[in-house]
Amino acid sequence: MSDNVPMRPLSLPAAVAAAALAIPVGLTCLPPSPRLGWAAVALAEAGQAQTPAQSPAIDFARDIQPILAKNCYECHDARKQKAHLRLDSAAAIVRGSENGAIVLAGNSEKSPMVRRLLGLDGEDRMPKDEDPLPPAQIALIRAWIDQGAAFPAGAEQTAAAPANPEPQHWAYRVPVRQEPPAVKRTDWTRTAIDRFVLARLEKEGLAPSPEAPLETLVRRVSLDLIGLPPSPREVDDVIADAARSGRDAAYEHLVDRLLASPHYGERWARPWLDLARYADSQGYEKDLPRVMWKYRDWVINALNQDMPFDQFTVEQIAGDMLPNPTSDQLVASGFHRNSMTNEEGGIDPDEALYEVLVDRVNTTATVWLGTTLGCAQCHNHKYDPFTQKDYYRMMAFFQNTDYQSRTFSDGTRFSEAIIDLPTPDQETKRKAIQAEIDKLNDQMKVTTPAFEREQADWEQAAKAEASLHWVTLAPKQLEATGGVQLTAMADGSVIASGASPGDTTYTVHAVTTLPRITAIRLEALPDPSLPKGGPGRDIYGNFQMNGFEVGASTGSGQAPDPLAISAIRADDSAGGANLDTFFPKMLPRGAHAPRGWQIDASREDPRRPRQIVFTFDKPLAVPIGTPLTIRLKHQAAAVGQAIGRFTLSATASATPERIVQLPARLRPILAIPVAQRTEQQQKDVTAFYRTIAPSLKPTRDQIADLQKQLRALGIPTALVMHDKTSYERPSAYVRRRGAFLDKGELVYADVPAILHSLPDDQMPNRLGLARWLVDERNPLTARVTVNRAWEQFFGRGIVETSEDFGTQGSPPSHPELLDWLATDLVRGGWHMKPVHKAIVMSATYRQSSVGTTASVERDPYNRLLARGPRFRLEAEMVRDGVLAASGLLSQKIGGPSVYPPQPDGIWDIPYSSEKWMPSDGEDRYRRGLYVFIRRSAAYPSFMTFDATSREHTTVRRVRTNTPLQALVALNDEAFFEAAQALAARVLREAPATSNDARATYAFRLVATRMPSTTEVGRICAALDKQLQRFRSDPAAAAKAIKGKEVQGVDPAEQAAWTLVANALLNLDETLTKE
Amino acid sequence: MDVRTLRAITRRHFFRQSGFGIGGLALTSLFDQRLFAQNVENPLAPKAPHFAPKAKNIIYLFMAGAPSQLDLFDNKPTLQTHDGQEIPAEFIPKGERFAFIKGTPRLLGSPFTFKRHGQSGAELSELLPHLATIADEIAIVKSVHTTQFNHAPGQIFMNTGSQVFGRPSMGAWLTYGLGSESRDLPGFVVLLSGENAPDGGKSCWGSGFLPTVYQGVEFRSKGDPVLFVSNPDGVSREARRDSIDLVDDLNRAHRTDVGDPEIDTRIASYEMAYRMQSSVPELTDISREPASMHEMYGTEPGKVSFANNCLLARRLVERGVRFVQLYHRGWDTHGASVGTDIATKVPELCLETDRAATALVRDLKQRGLLDSTLVIWGGEFGRTPMNEARGGSRLMGRDHHPRAFTVWMAGGGIKPGITIGKTDDLGYNVVEDPVEVHDLHATILQLMGLDHTKLTYKFQGREFRLTDVHGNVVPKLLA
Q1: Interatomic CA distance for residues A624 and B346, integer angstroms
Q2: If you compute the radius of gyration of chain A from its CA atoms, what whole number of angstroms results?
Q3: How confident is the model over B136-162, as pLDDT tens digits?
Q4: Considering only CB atoms, which chain A residues are within 8 Å of B195?
Q5: Using CA atoms, how far apart are residues B351 and A260, in angstroms rounded to an integer?
Q6: Contact A59, A152 (CB under 8 A)
Q7: Which residues make Cβ contacts (< 8 Å) with residue A989, sequence separation at least 6?
């Protein structure tokens, strides 16, 4: 090249030093980088041929601007202009830097921009201190310059200037419908889609693949439309139909049948529920369950009815704000109640709500606008034309929510609206039961003279109990380990002093003074010598006793065995009423000693006496004067927490526990004559007595029974949106750097400035926002929606980054096709089923997915669609397919979430006591979308297969292939049970004449197609090997088929088939759509 | 394009489905292209760091619930002399929020005594008698601070560099960046002990937007150590081998028919799964360790304990596992009820952890592994110098305190026998060498041979890092 190359200078004179140039213009050929899309592929070739002029037209907005945005804006945009250079608007690029023009149209070689990118002329290579741009990207920039460095209309304006919202980036311009292009191979195309795809293939010099075999196609379209593999019978039916009506007609019949199936809604609900971050728990720390399945069922029904997507949108964003909303519309508004809610103790409820609002804004932007608005929470979006104010204006739409803060013992929580959804029958029953409960509660409160007498009698008896029935066991001899000194006092009590170790056992020797002893009582007593006045020896006066033994000497001189104790009751215990953990038989997780008997000085006065009663399993009947050995154990405490002062006593009472029925805190009150008690004291005593009064027992039982009935009604609830009544435009504070505590300016609800304005006839509220999202001027919603549908069928979207249509996302591989589909959706009244049908009817979709080495090498990601889709099924489909093949799958649609088997202990992780109880019967075999989703401990096999935990909206799941997946599919109880069932099914249903026939049937059940003779041979050989093994080990065979035994079949044979079935359910084909 | 490179590209499942497009770019810029191509069989295969690393592996002893630095490491005589007095108002920044404290709180002196140990003279509480014996092996950082004051976000922040759920954890970043040296074990293993699991749940060891192969695999103490690693009843190892052979045979044949290289990966996955079925049980069986080991760590085979997990951590590192993280929950000593008070609970937790954590450092050293293994001990935030006295509680308790807390580290390129950072007289604020969580992360990555600004992954339109836009390596910590 030389200076003679014709130059078309831009508006500014180019003062370029004409230096001798010997730059390596040959562009390095890199493997096609899919991120760059077709343009890069084409350019790499063009570069190789050294004929940039022949390369396809470069579009600045589509091809060049994203490169500049990613690599250069950091230093050269509206905020920062190193060397006085800005690269974020056409005008600025034309203007150049402080050194003059940077782009010389038609001459990339001389353009300072290119030379700096290559690091020539002894100047710093750009981007400074970063990796160089990939050669393919530099090639793109060069091609653009060589083609004339043209800018699209409107690009003259600064990208970030909100004054002129005419956007440069393709995704913010309204889709333009172009007629499908002309193609050469018109015999191949079936629909408009095919003409867009083929035009591109022909441009690339590629040929489409032939149509897939009918069996393959039936499987593919079944998985895509209803999420289930076809049964062999369904395949046979289509083949028979094809013989009658022709292949095309038979295929269309099948498609129509599948679109009308109630399972269609189940299959398409799954990706929507990822977007909606639907789950059955709150998220965060304790992650308690929430009831939300009515929303899930609403989605299934809406999809089955083919509810237009605009209506689908409005009802979910603002169903509650529609005039006279139906209960379905209220349930639909639960879309944004799927946010996680933080209930951790100590959380600030306003801040917790702020996090929810952030989630609502980000989710709305991602789901409808394909926009990473979340970046603008903290600062103006770095790459896309959204400001921080845009973000908080958007948040304002959601800021008017009607919520309540409630304070609990461990902190404050906020809550939003919940509705009950009883059937009319449930409602009638509930009202009746509640009325009954109210009536009985009123009865409980009535104080009659008879009740007063009853209570007075009880008080007398309770006071008398101690002195009447209990005899102090005066210690004869005292021992203690760990250097503790025990001293007997005149009143029969014992005081500890001396060392105070973590472990100590007190031994008290006494003799019986009763011929029959039913129980021993231990009183822990305060004493001025103890820390804080006792009764324990730790610094608070607390104690923790976790072992108690009584032995009665038989006179043989041997150490007596401890007597069996059947009940332990105390009148106060920090560990709660359940003292079963007193004995080390129920060690909690970890190395902790049992909590035993403890009091809580933080809440109760430690100096109050407490009692605990140990009742013998069988009364001790020995002569008076028999030696007793009593041990008080304090084990494994880190610091000295032994009892400081105590008294032991014995009783012959048949009801020894009556003494501790009265809570320790009430005993001092009983000692006060009724007339001298305060009103509160008397109230406390009476309130307690009502919980034990024999005369009220029938009423108490009745109430308990009615409450049980109320719960048994199982009235479902749903979380819904509900706004405060307000006549003001909703507003929100900008939060500087996104920090909740850093309040900035107050802004009012509005849509991002770069996009179309709110419709004139809409209020600036959530309903207005909903209608704006589906306004025909919205450039994004329809594109984003059809792109996600495309992604489901082909494994990747026309815009690969289906969650990001911004400048940092990938450009569309087929922009005209995307716009054609988007406009088609709107023209068709936003119905999704016709879009799905258009896709599956296309020749593009029906291609075989077999890739030749050449085609895979040329286009590894199948961006150009020269072959059909082939990829691993999503987690739920893996489960559904396996259950369907085995015949176990339940057809039931909707209802509360279910609990299929999962390994023990999965739910130990969240910090709460919820338990996973495996479902019985049909619910064990429901489709994957019904499995209970607890966010912090999601169903493990799904997580292994890349499902999400539904903490945030997810557009694209990753698709991995790992050994942990192999372990799931081989060994998970749910999968192995399916293998057992599949084997049993084959043995029952396939002709018993030969293993070949059975193998064929089994293979068709899992992979749909007919196996080859070689494949059948391999299966039968594997079967024989397993059979020999199980014949020699009948015990193993019995275990392998346990629960699924088939009458009249040799267990070894069934076991061998079970292992074969297990293998077949693990085939790549079983787990893949091809 | 040769077959190897082609395969490299078609290993799309290793990254996102968008392959090179998103994950691949980060990797190709990070690693030599040829090296990458050689390692495509296994996404966890070792990868070259940015520069020569000091450490190869990490054992992170995460003390979930937040240990009280004022009762273990940061001795404050002033607190003792002013015990029970109201904290001077000027100490509490305007608008300071506490998790539970209401009104003007009173100072709380530690009930425990401190002594200096070793040549370094490190000051430690009487509750850490074992750690005192290796005072010259460890580096104590008394000036760590965070932004979060609740457990779940605090733990998520400490592990992922962000309080928002859904970001990759440090272990995921490291296995993504460096792979694992182990052929038949995951690269990132998590072990739990204590009262319950960490509040942040599995997000603490999640892979966020990174591929799930990089998420922490929880080795469970009950049932299968790794989920589904055991064969179902009646299925012997031989029967399993034969059934996997059938899967592989049919998959290989189909690979020829359809030409999808993804099937090769599936075959490889089944082989590794089979190997894991024997390597995992062998690894987790500590019963054959000599009695001297059990004595040193305080381990009891079959029990769920921090000690057992420490011993397991050493066995995992020996087998090349890149990142082992232990969680021990229970340090949340609010003093709001019996069993959560400073005076009794902190000693109890020290009994559970001090001996084993010390034994781990000693054991690594005697095996020559300490130089290449970085050991980190610490929680998600600190505890207040003031008594919480929730609801009028009379127990000793400390509320959550993000402004200053202590972490210690050992081995793996850490300068031994030093204490860095200082807090004010009350232990409220850091006054010298502040280390924020991102700095800690930057330093950890540095020791592993990674530049924290270059370990990136593109997601939702931007390049993410463990340290986001923050973080500075702490040079004083480096040997």
Answers
A1: 47
A2: 39
A3: 999 999 999 999 888 888 999 999 999
A4: 588-590, 592
A5: 65
A6: yes
A7: A1001
pLDDT in tens, A340-369: 887 766 677 888 889 899 999 999 999 999
Give the separation between CA B248 and CA B14, rounded to whole angstroms. 20
Interface with B, mutate which of A45, A946, A961, A1029 (most B CBs under 10 A): A961
* Per-residue pLDDT tens digits for B384-441: 999 998 877 888 999 999 999 999 999 999 999 999 999 999 999 999 999 999 999 9
* CB-CB under 8 Å, B272 with A1067: no
Retrieve residue A824's tokens. Answer: 């088609």
Helices (H) and strands (E) in chain B, counts: 14, 18
Of A745, A741, A720, the closest CA to residue A732 belongs to A745
In whole angstroms, how far apart are CA A412 and each of A290, A409, B465?
A: 18, 8, 34
Phi, psi of A568 (to 5 degrees): -130, 120
Task: State the amino acid at position A472 in one-letter form.
Answer: T
Confidence class of residue A328 from pLDDT cuts 50, 70 and 90?
A: very high
Residues 53-72 of B with CB under 8 A from A: none
Task: Tell me which residue has tokens 């300072």.
Answer: A112
Give the pTM.
Answer: 0.75
CB atoms within 10 A of CB B281: 14
Distance from A577 to chain B by nearest Cα, in Å?
15
**Mean pLDDT (chain A, rounded):** 86
Report the residue count for chain B: 479
Dihedral of CA B240/B243/B248/B249: which sign? Answer: positive
- DSSP 8-state code for residue A898: B
Residues of A whose CB is below 8 A from B262: 870-872, 961, 1068
Polymer length in residues for chain A: 1074
Task: Report yes or no: B244 at the A interface, CB cutoff 8 Å.
Answer: yes
**Spatial separation of the C-alpha atoms in residues A267 and A874, rounded to whole Å:** 11
Lookup result for tokens 């990938």: A810
Helix (H) or strand (E) holding A650: strand A645-651
Q: How far is A804 from chain B (nearest CA, A)?
A: 6
- Name the packing angle between helices A232-245 and A214-226 (round to 10°): 120
Please give the full DSSP string across A317-344, using - where no structure is assigned: HHGGGSSS--HHHHHHGGGGGGS-----
Q: Which of A369, A970, A980, A1067 to mutate to test the interface with B (most CBs of B within 10 A)?
A: A970
SS3 percent helix, strand, coil of chain A, rounded to 5, is: 45, 10, 45
Geometric angle at alpha carbon A659, from A658 and A664, rounded to 5° = 125
Please report the residues numbered 375 through 434 in chain B whose beta carbons come closer than 8 angstroms to any beta carbon of chain A.
Answer: 391, 393-396, 400
CA B314 to chain centre: 14
State the distance between the two ends of chain B, measured CA to CA, in whole angstroms. Answer: 45
Distance from CA of B76 to the nearest CA of A (A): 21
Which pLDDT score, from 0 to 100, does residue A427 have?
94
Taking CB atoms and an 8 Å cutoff, what residues of chain A touch B101?
Answer: none
Could you tell me which of A337, A279, A274, A372 has the C-alpha nearest to residue A955? A274
- Given B19, B152, B393, which is nearest A34 (Cβ)? B19
Taking CB atoms and an 8 Å cut-off, how many pairs form between chains A and B? 347
Count Cβ atoms within 10 A of the Cβ of residue A714 and give its class: 0-12 exposed, 13-18 middle, 19 or more buried.
Answer: exposed
Would you tell me how many other CB atoms lie within 10 Å of the CB of residue A703? 18
Residue B231 CA to residue B238 CA, distance in Å, equals 11
The kind and range of the H/E element at A791 are: helix A781-794
Q: Write out residues 174-233 of B within 8 Å (CB-CB) of A.
A: 186, 193-197, 199, 201-203, 211-213, 217, 220, 222-224, 226-233
Task: Tell me if chain A has a CB within 8 Å of the CB of B264.
Answer: no
Contacts for A360 with CB less than 8 Å, ≥ 6 apart = A336, A339, A395, A398
